[in-house]
Structure formats: C-alpha cells, structure tokens
Design brief:
Layout: H1 9-16, H2 21-28, E1 33-34, H3 35-41, H4 47-59, E2 63-68, E3 74-79, H5 81-84, H6 87-105, H7 122-128
Antiparallel strand pairs: 1-3, 2-3
Length: 134
C-alpha cells in the first residue's frame, strides 16, 4: 500500500529534507558539478554522505548522474527537468535564510561564506574587511 501523507509538505521533505540535499541542489542550480566540486563547495560534508545524498536524489529523479567514458573516469551531476522545478522553493529557502540571519545577527556580513550562492551587499563586505574577490 502506498504511503499516505498528512500534508503535502511531508512528500517534499521526504525528497529534499535533511542537512545536505537542499545545499547540493542549490549548487547544482549553477550548473553541472563533479563530486570533487561539490566537496570543495561543501567542505563539512563527508564523501560517504555526499555519495549517499546524490544517490537518493538520483533515485527520486531530481538529479542525473552523467558518466563519461574516459580514463580516468569522470562523473558529473546535474538537475533533471523535474529537479529544476525545485528552483523556486530553493530560492525561497535562501531568501528566508537571509531574513533569519539578519533578524538574529543584524547583518549578513561575517555570517555567510563568500560564494556565488550568497548575495552579500558590497557595503557590508567593505565594513567587514572583505574585498569583492575574497
């Protein structure tokens, strides 16, 4: 018998819930990534956990695993069309996270890593001693 959900957000969280899946998906909205790219972008995740999360996302039809017939072997991950349907949700989560950081800490500066995913205003960076390229 198929699982019955109390509310539909349970189905969403079943697929993208947990500490790492949304972070992985946010990085994949900026293009294909190799496992090594994701590890570099997410230094706190273990290789085992990254592999497990990518496999689950692949099983759920959210990401494609692309294997290239090369030596040494090369594998990349990208969002499927179905995975791209999560982009508005991921953007909303990022926006809410910024609001929460501002509420709790008064500034994004010093609270977010410098990344293409984070929109830290330049005036905040200049007051924190960071440059636009750091």
């Amino acid at each position: 018998m198929a699982k019955k959900y109390n509310i539909s957000v349970e189905a969403t969280l079943e697929v993208i819930g947990g500490k790492w899946k949304c972070v992985i998906l946010c990085h994949l909205t900026h293009g294909k990534k190799r496992t090594s790219d994701l590890r570099r972008l997410m230094p706190a995740i273990t290789q085992k956990m990254l592999t497990q999360q990518l496999r689950e996302l692949e099983e759920d039809g959210i990401v494609n695993r692309i294997s290239y017939n090369e030596v040494p072997p090369r594998v990349e991950y990208e969002l499927t069309e179905y995975g791209w349907s999560l982009e508005p949700i991921l953007n909303a989560l990022c926006n809410w996270g910024e609001l929460h950081i501002l509420k709790e800490h008064g500034s994004l500066s010093g609270m977010l890593e410098r990344s293409i995913l984070n929109k830290i205003p330049e005036e905040e960076e200049s007051t924190s001693g960071k440059t636009a390229l750091s």
